Amino acid sequence: MQAIDETDYTGGNISSLLADRTTPLVLRGLVQHWPLVQQAKHSDAAAAAYLQRFAADVPVQAFFAEPAAKGRFFYNDDLSGFNFQQRQTKLSDVLSSILQHGGQTDAPVFYMGSTTADYCVPGLAAQNTLTLDSINPLISVWLGNRSHVVAHYDVPDNIACVAAGQRRFTLFAPEQMANLYIGPLDVTPAGQPVSMVDFRQPDFARYPRFRTALQHALTAELGAGDAIFIPSMWWHQVDSLSDLNILLNYWWRQTPPYCGLPTDALLHAMLSIRNLPPVQRKIWQQQFDHYVFNANDDTTAHLPADKRGILGPMLEQTARKLRAMLLSRLNR
Hints:
By secondary structure, the protein is α+β, with helices and mostly antiparallel strands. The protein has helices at about 15-20, 35-40, 45-50, 90-100, 115-120, 125, 210-215, 260-270, 280-295, 315-330, and strands at about 1-5, 5-10, 25-30, 60-65, 70-75, 85-90, 110-115, 140-145, 145-150, 155-165, 165-170, 220, 225-230, 235-240, 245-250. It has a nine-stranded mixed beta sheet. Strands 1-12-11-14-9-5 form a six-stranded mixed beta sheet, with helices on one face. The protein folds into two domains: about 1-250, Jelly Rolls; about 260-330, no CATH class. It contains ten helices and 15 strands. Strand 2, helix 1 (about 15-20) and strand 3 form a beta-alpha-beta unit.
C-alpha cells in the first residue's frame, strides 16, 4: 500500500486546488473550524448533543448488524441476502444506540449511510460550511460506530469531511477493478457493486489477483477536521475506527443534471450488446468509439450545424429528445 497525497489546508480556493484533479488528495484540517468538529474533539457526547440539535423528526434508513458481523456490512454466506438488517428509524434513535454501546468491545453495529443533510439535519450545513465556488454539491451525512463499508465506487466526485471520530480510507484506481473481484450488480448491500474480498483477512487462494490490487492501493487515516477528495469511479473502502463517527460529504458531477447516468448506459449495453457474436460486438465497439469515447469536432464537421440533431451539443433539449427516444424504443 502507498500513502495518499496530502496537503495541509491553510485557506484558499478549494475548487481551484481540485480543478482537473483525477487522483485522491487528503486535505488535513480542511474543516477543523466547524463547530461540530470542535464539539467532537471535546467528547462523543458533546458531538452527539450538537448534532441532535438539528435532528429532524423524519424517518431515515439505517443498518443494524450483530456483533458477529464484526462491523462489516456484507452479504450472508450463500449470497442469498445480507448479514445486517435495514430499518426505518430516526436519526436521534441511531445516535442514542451508538452512545448506549460506546466503549463496548463486542457492540452491535449501527450505521446510517448517505442521507441528505437538509432532510435529516436541516441547518447543520449552514453552520458547518464548505465553499466550492460554482459547484452546487449535494451534502450528505454518515453516522455510525465501528464499521467497515466495503470497497465500492461512486459516480460523482466527492469530498468526504470527517466531523467526528477516526476513519481509514483505502482507495484503488478504476483500472484495478478486475483485481477487486466485484460482486453482483443487481443485488448490492447499499446500491453500489462491492468488492467480495474481506480486506481484513484476504483469501488469496480464492482471490489471487487481489495481491496486485494491494500493490497499487492508497491509504490514509483521517481524524476530525480532515477531509479527502475521492474522484469519480475510484474504488474505496472506509473503516470507521471510533465509537462515534460522523462524516459529511459533498457530491457533484461534472456534467449538467439533465445528463443521464453512465450506469444506465452500462446496463442497456449489457442487455443489447454483450451477447452479440464477437464480430458484431467489435463493430459496436467501433460505433461507441466514434460517437462517444473518441467523439470530437471532426465527428460532425461534415454536417451543417443546424442538422446535427442529437450529435450536436448536449443541451437540455437534446437530453430530453434522447430520453424520449430511449423510452419509446424500450417500450416497444
